[in-house]
Design brief:
The chain is mainly alpha-helical and 67 residues long. It is 58% helix and 6% strand.
């Protein structure tokens, strides 16, 4: 399995660029589709529990997923 975390980190950097608010899991899913992430990255994004995330919280949650 390839290391998907650099792709996810770059995505989060872009998604949260100039954002002063938290993003919902739905917002992140929509942005991930628009960013045309790999299937592996999309699987992780889709598995995020519902809620709102700051960038560091989203990164931690993506790493903790047992996929």
């Amino acid at each position: 399995m390839t290391d998907v975390f650099p792709e996810l980190d770059a995505f989060l950097d872009q998604a949260f660029a100039s954002q002063e608010r938290r993003l919902s899991s739905g917002d992140l899913q929509r942005r991930a589709v628009a960013a045309d992430l790999s299937a592996t990255a999309m699987t992780r994004i889709d598995a995020l529990p519902e809620g709102e995330y700051a960038q560091d919280e989203a990164a931690e949650a993506l790493r903790e997923l047992q996929i």
